[in-house]
Amino acid sequence: MIKGRDQRMKTKGKMIAYWTVTSLLVFAIMLSGIGQLMQFGGNIELVTNLGYPLYILTILGIWKVLGAIALLMPGFPRLKEWVHAGIFFLMTGAALSHAFANDYGDYGFNIILPLSYAALNIASWLLRPQGRMIGNLPGNTEKRAKMQRLAFKKINA
What are the CA-CA distances from residue 18 to residues 68, 101, 130 (Å)? Predict the structure, then answer.
């Protein structure tokens, strides 16, 4: 009886942690994307200091807004995997771009901020519930293996 209760508490705690971290990530990415689309808050200076064209703000802004929406949508575990990968590459790429351009900002802010978003992203990905994991969807692995066996039988027949 106690083991079941402990497991439920552990699962509930993990779910609370997941939604807290993911909500912070979605809020930060959405706000950043909207800021880039509207060209608010020094986004123009950040991009021009790095030597990128201004239209990159529109591209990044659209991808960020769409990614934030995708993380909140129910279902679509593969899409969520791609969003997490995209956010990781985007944020580490931003930090490296600032580092290579010697554009650290005050107290390293231009590097610390994107790396903190990348850390939030990793935490969200690690804490995701079982149903949001591609390889662990109920019955997914067995169904895929069965389909592959059938396909190989047809090829070899």
Answer: 15, 35, 11
